[in-house]
Amino acid sequence: MSVSTTRRERQKLLEEALQPKDLANEFRAQVPTWQRVMRAVQGPRRIKSYNGLPVFYRALAAMFSSGIKITRGLEILSNQAEEPALAEVLPMVVQNLWEGMPLSAAMKPFHLLFPPFHIKLLEMGEASGKLPKVLLQIADYEERRGQIFMKVKSAMTYPAFLFSVSMIVVVLGPPYMFGGLLKFIQDSHQEVPLMTRMLLDFSAFVTSPWFFLGLGIAGYGILRVVRYFQSHEAARRELVINMLRLPIIGRTIQLVAVCRFARSLATTLEVGLGILHCLIMSAESSDNPVLVEKMKAGLEDLKNGKMLNEVLADSNFFPRAFIAVVKVGEETGEIGEIVKRMAEMYETEMEEQLNAMLALMEPLWMMVMGLMVGFIAVATLMPIMAMLRNL
């Protein structure tokens, strides 16, 4: 074999190695057909765990800072990702990078995983040359956001458990736990009180096919209502407005929105975004349609020269202490750091509100459970006492 032939073969191998890999098609080829069909039916995936994105961004920042190419880093994270959604999407992101896109543009099509808030921050990081720092800031933001969600979720778990147990007792108790006793009362052919008659009719209904049909219709109706509020912004806004008027619950919803807004505002200001972009992006990250509407209305005032604290005050949504701190931050030029500290303070207050709401709901629901169980006990014992008196 000549030297020129060897060189040509090496050049050919080098060119093949430098060709962009079609990782997306390789990944799809490895996925069984039934899984691809199920994913097409289910639609786009989301991150299931709230620590999935923070871990991803931190690992990517570490690899980028250590000199590993972004494409190679994403390939490694794709192979090691525990989240199915990331494992499915990252090969496509790498494919976009091989085609010459920057990281922000490569992630942009997958908005269910990487929201516009992340994309805008990544664009600023790419433009300023501080992408690793921005990746870490996004990770910090997602961690705090996940912690807020988990606090709300954990506070609602116990009331949901009590509700489920009480519904099981009320619905399944009469026909299955007291079925023999109710049949004995019904076979006695004596006149029973109204409460007992209601319990007998309810027990007969629960054991009939009509109950399961009604249960299915009710479940479908609830699902349709939830999807309606998710897809209609005006209806969702009216729902939030009404919920904000409720005692304790309204204050908790407000604090959750303020915490998310403050965290987003601090992050976007640290990255270097303009205040106009910061305002809208922070409002949208709060997932509160009332706050988004108020901030969009105040955007023109901000363009016309109003200070940020004045715009927030005009919205009648933020606590006075928060507005005062924002004013101080504008005067000192340290608004990002001050807002971050306020977010931590309101997260503590939000947790206290959640505990207060839980402390209020627990005795109320226990009282409701006691009334329902008492109704079943009285309705069952009244005809038995009547039969004993007639002996």
H/E series, N to C?
HHHHHHHHHHHHHHHHHHH
Number of beta-strand segments: 0
The 3D shape can be described as elongated
Low-confidence stretches: 13-44
Largest sheet: none
Number of helices, where a helix is a run of at least 4 consecutive DSSP H or I residues: 19
Multimeric state: single chain
Main features:
single chain, mainly alpha, 19 helices
Description:
The protein is mainly alpha-helical and 391 residues long. Helix content is 82%, strand content 0%. It has 19 helices and no strands. α2 packs antiparallel against α6, α5 runs antiparallel to α6 and α18 runs antiparallel to α19. The chain starts with a helix and ends with a helix. About 8% of the residues have low confidence.
Q: What's the helix and strand layout?
A:
Layout: H1 3-18, H2 23-30, H3 33-42, H4 52-65, H5 70-80, H6 84-98, H7 103-107, H8 116-128, H9 131-177, H10 179-187, H11 194-206, H12 209-231, H13 233-244, H14 249-271, H15 275-285, H16 289-303, H17 308-314, H18 320-332, H19 335-390
Please sum up the structure shown.
The chain is mostly helical and 391 residues long.
